[in-house]
Structures are given as structure tokens and as C-alpha cells.
From TrEMBL:
Residues 1-23 form the signal peptide. It comes from the Bacteria. Transmembrane segments: none annotated. Pathway: Cell wall biogenesis; peptidoglycan biosynthesis. Residues 17-100 are annotated as: Disordered. PROSITE patterns: LD_TPASE, PROKAR_LIPOPROTEIN. Residues 77-93 have a biased composition (Low complexity). Residues 172-283 form the L,D-TPase catalytic domain. The active site is at 243 (proton donor/acceptor), 259 (nucleophile). This is L,D-transpeptidase family protein. The keyword Signal applies. Keywords: Cell shape, Cell wall biogenesis/degradation, Peptidoglycan synthesis, Signal, Transferase. Gene3D superfamilies: L,D-transpeptidase catalytic domain-like, PGBD-like superfamily/PGBD.
């Protein structure tokens, strides 16, 4: 009986050891591979979307610690300075200063009628008001008082127009400088309408130089070939005439089909001054036509 006790103890220990090991050991595959029963790594990644390495917008997770660490307080947002603008503005003027400031000041002083300007190349409140008034008069967009390329171009064309080159005689004469793209009106040798901007025929449709007479007028004429209304129409030759522009006048990439395009206020004024029989004189040639 004494010899049987060690045997029982050995058998009991063997049974406990066998069942304890079986709880952590994977079930063997049919072909004897001990890895059977585990989900392959790639399959797990496809199902869960998890990757073996972090992506460019991911961070590796830190190893967890027993005691939580204190995080630094989030800094309060501070006001950042705005990026400097490409154009400068005088605090007193409220207008941005353009790259043609001094030239525009010079031309506006020469033209007159838009308010006082100081020819010094620096924007001021008075300069700003004068440039804005000029831009509004000739529909230069946006009218913000900045002496940019369009404002410079229009001011230069108007200031350098020689009204005497029209050689107008007696009666009313409509004059067009095709080279500068300006137009004005004279009566008995005197200017009754100052030069203003216009746009004539584009390449392939050049408006011809010469002397003509207005032979037909209509407050609102319909253009058959181009299917558009022509307000304040005054015809003078070959289907060409004065009329209010139907597009942005300062877009030089386009032009008319030979007509003399006018701003709305100028079209009305020339309608009031003109009549059948009024002389039309065109000099020069539009560049590029």
C-alpha cells in the first residue's frame, strides 16, 4: 500500500500538466502544421484595414504605461500678422497704389475735370478720389482708385489725342482717331464733346479711314448678321456706324466688325449731337488691323 501512493501522485501530476498545456497550443492542421487555426496576417489587414506600418498621416502608438502622464496645456491661439500685399496703400488715401501712379497723376492733371492731383508718384486721398472718378467715367473696372495698366492706357490715349488732327470744318463733325481709339465731336472748328474712348474694327474687320456722312439713324437697330441690338445706331458707311457697346469696351482682345463702339453715356451724347448729314472723319489706323 505504501508503494501505490507515489504512483497516484505521478498520474495526477501528468494529467494536470497535459490539460494545462493544451489550453495554449494551437490545434494541429491535418498536414501537421502547428500554425493552423490562426488568421493569416494579410487577411487580417484586408478585413480590418490595419497595416503593418503606419501611413504618412499616422503616428506610431506609444507603449502604454501604468500611470497616466500629464499632457501639456494647449497653447492659446495668437494673432498672426497678415501677409504683405503686392501693392502699397497710403493710410490716409484708402486706395491701393498702382505701378503707374506718377504717369496717371500726370495725365489726369493734364486732362483736368477729375479733381486735384499731386504729381509725385505717391497715392493720397485726393489722388484716390480723382482716379476713382476717372475710372467711373470711362467704365474701368474695378473702380478702386488704383493706377493700373488699363487706367494708364486710357489716360494716355485721351491725353495725347490731338483734336486739331481731325481738320473739322463748319457744322458738326464726329472725329475718330483710329490709332489711339478715341472719338470726339466738333462744331465750327471748336470741340463740343471732349475725346472719349472707343473701340473700332478688329483684325479682318478694320474700320476704314476717310470722310463720310451719317445717312441713317435709329434709337435701337437690330443687326441681322450678328443678331444683337445696336442702341443709338448712326450709320455712315458699308454697314458701319456708331452704337453703344454690347461688351466690355476695354477688352482689347476683341473688337467690332467695323463699327465705332461707345460707352452708354457717350452713345447718348453723340446721338443728341448728330443727325442725318453729320460729317464723320476717321484718321489713322487701329494697331494690329
Amino acid at each position: 500500500m505504501r508503494k501505490s501512493r507515489p504512483t497516484v501522485r505521478v498520474l495526477t501530476l501528468a494529467a494536470i500538466t497535459l490539460f494545462g498545456a493544451g489550453a495554449c497550443t494551437p490545434e494541429p492542421r491535418k498536414d501537421g502544421d502547428p500554425a493552423a487555426g490562426r488568421t493569416p496576417v494579410r487577411v487580417a489587414e484586408q478585413k480590418t484595414g490595419a497595416g503593418g506600418s503606419p501611413g504618412p498621416d499616422q503616428r506610431k502608438r506609444p507603449t502604454p504605461t501604468v500611470a497616466p502622464t500629464r499632457s501639456k496645456p494647449t497653447p492659446k491661439p495668437t494673432a498672426s500678422r497678415p501677409a504683405p500685399r503686392t501693392t502699397t496703400a497710403s493710410p490716409a488715401s484708402g486706395c491701393p497704389q498702382g505701378e503707374h501712379q506718377r504717369a496717371v497723376e500726370t495725365y489726369l492733371a493734364q486732362l483736368g475735370g477729375f479733381g486735384p492731383v499731386t504729381v509725385d508718384g505717391r497715392q493720397s486721398a485726393a489722388d484716390c478720389a480723382a482716379i476713382k472718378k476717372f475710372q467711373q467715367r470711362y467704365d474701368i473696372r474695378p473702380a478702386v482708385g488704383r493706377a493700373g495698366p488699363t487706367t494708364y492706357d486710357v489716360a494716355k490715349r485721351l491725353a495725347t489725342t490731338d483734336v486739331r488732327a481731325c481738320r473739322a470744318g463748319s457744322g458738326t463733325t464726329f472725329c475718330i482717331d483710329l490709332t489711339r481709339q478715341t472719338t470726339w465731336a466738333m462744331r465750327d472748328g471748336k470741340v463740343i464733346m471732349k475725346p472719349t474712348v472707343t473701340r473700332t474694327g478688329m483684325p479682318g474687320y478694320a474700320t476704314p479711314a476717310g470722310t463720310f456722312k451719317i445717312n441713317f439713324r435709329n434709337v435701337k437697330e437690330w443687326s441681322d448678321p450678328y443678331e444683337v441690338w445696336l442702341p443709338y445706331w448712326q450709320h455712315f458707311t458699308q454697314g458701319m456706324g456708331f452704337h453703344q457697346t454690347t461688351t466690355y469696351l476695354h477688352d482689347k482682345a476683341i473688337g467690332s466688325h467695323g463699327c465705332v463702339n461707345l460707352l452708354p453715356a457717350d452713345a447718348v451724347r453723340m446721338w443728341e449731337l448728330g443727325k442725318v448729314g453729320t460729317t464723320v472723319k476717321l484718321i489713322g489706323r487701329r494697331p494690329g488691323t
